[in-house]
Design brief:
- This protein has about 375 residues and is mostly beta strands.
- It has three domains: about 20-55, no CATH class; about 65-235 and about 350-365, no CATH class; about 235-345.
- Helix content is about 10%, strand content about 40%.
- The protein contains six helices and 23 strands.
- The chain has helices spanning about 20-25, 30-35, 40-50, 50-55, 290-295, 300-305, and strands at about 65, 75-80, 100-110, 110-115, 125-130, 135-140, 150-155, 165-170, 175-180, 185-190, 205-210, 210-215, 220-225, 230-235, 245-250, 250-260, 265-275, 280-290, 305-310, 315-320, 325-330, 335-345, 355.
- Strand 16 and strand 17 (about 265-275) form a beta hairpin.
- The protein starts with 18 loop residues before the first helix and ends in a 12-residue tail after the last strand.
- It comes from Lolium multiflorum.
- This is F-box domain-containing protein.
- Pfam families: F-box, FBA_3.
Length: about 375
């Protein structure tokens, strides 16, 4: 070897990073990207899978909470996204000060909204927001609109704020209204305005850009309410069929529905993504034959034999139920693949609550 010429091995800059620093970097990435990085090397796989590190990293969809008929005084069920194995998330409510006669109203990202009624009286209701992963919770102050209350939902985006909002819609013979509770201020904002569009708890809703988005009943639009209860805008949806569904996936608002053919028969599943939020521009993302998606079942009575469950927050996958026994099904948009997950049972109530674990402690909650 000539003098001065030596074989040098290039050193990878990443090799000088400590494990704690790598985990800190990974914690700022989407959950889907973190999962992919498990394939980089055995070292990264072990690093990401380590129980202590996993608590710091972004999580993905773990499964779904469900309520069942006749269980007003019971706890919800939890079904893993795989449909198998013991529940990945505890569905016990023993950590709440009142955990009997409870009803799950809504989920948003990693938090759940419960209403508890010890006496089963409509005016004796107490709201709790909790994180079942950490068993932290917060009790909401009583509202003076309990006798008018029609529907409630939860808003929470841990990427924007550690605080949550609870929207309570009410209605009487003269006026529509909404109260919004903020965990940051501990107070409610009360607004009465007939421009406020009533919220139907059976329809889907999304908390995005600090606002509640929900599908309007009998109107092909999405209402957008800020945390002061003001109607910011209405977003028209691409079609006017009865089975519309909105979810947040990969950071964007998605809208799924079924379209009819020229003979007014349900013919295909369509999925749109809101590419341009400010200008309200939708793009058709996917289309599939309805009969294939529905496992060959008839499309004539979707209202009785089909229910939306979720659109995966990190990938192109839709979850729904088909049939009287509520068979949980996933549809992989990229692979155009339908997979039966499990049977939930015909007594499963029509609203489903997707859940993404959050291991971080929140200032707004306590034990």
């Amino acid at each position: 070897m000539a003098k001065g010429r030596r074989s040098k091995r290039r050193r990878c800059p990443a090799s000088s990073l400590t494990n704690d620093l790598v985990v800190e970097i990974l914690s700022r990435l989407p959950a889907r990207s973190v999962c992919r990085f498990k394939c980089v090397s055995a070292t990264w796989r072990d690093l990401i899978s380590h129980p202590v590190h996993r608590m710091k990293l972004p999580q993905t969809l773990a499964g779904f909470f469900t309520m069942h008929d006749g269980e007003m005084c019971s706890v919800p069920h939890f079904t893993n996204v795989s449909g198998t194995g013991p529940p990945l998330v505890s569905h016990s409510l023993d950590f709440l000060p009142i955990h009997k006669r409870t009803f799950l109203l809504d989920s948003c990202n990693s938090l759940l909204l419960y209403i508890c009624s010890p006496t089963l009286c409509r005016t004796d209701c107490h709201y709790f927001v909790c994180n079942p992963t950490t068993e932290e919770w917060a009790a909401l102050p009583d509202s003076n609109q309990g006798h008018k209350r029609r529907a409630s939902c939860l808003g929470f985006d841990p990427a924007m704020s550690p605080h949550f909002y609870v929207y309570e819609f009410f209605q009487d013979y003269l006026v529509n209204g909404v109260e919004v509770y903020s965990s940051e201020t501990g107070e409610r904002v009360h607004r009465e305005d007939n421009d406020i569009i009533p919220f139907d708890y059976r329809r889907s809703n999304v908390f995005l850009n600090g606002c509640l988005h929900y599908l309007v009943y009998d109107n092909p639009t999405i209402a957008v309410l800020d945390t002061q209860g003001k109607l910011r805008m209405s977003i028209p949806v691409p079609n006017n069929e009865d089975y519309g569904f909105i979810q947040l996936s990969q950071g964007r608002l998605h809208y799924a529905n079924f379209e009819a053919d020229d003979e007014d028969q349900v013919a295909r599943l369509v999925v749109y993504v809101l590419d341009d939020y400010e200008n309200q521009q939708w793009r058709l993302k996917h289309m599939a034959e309805a009969s294939y998606v529905l496992l060959g079942q008839t499309c004539h009575n979707l209202a009785r034999t089909f229910e939306w469950v979720a659109i995966h927050p990190d990938c192109n996958m839709i979850f729904y139920t088909v049939g009287w026994d509520k068979t949980l099904v996933s549809y992989d948009i990229d692979r155009r693949q339908v997979q039966v997950i499990c049977t939930l049972g015909e007594d499963t109530r029509e609203k489903y609550f997707p859940y993404v674990p959050l291991f971080s402690e929140l200032q707004a909650l306590h034990r």
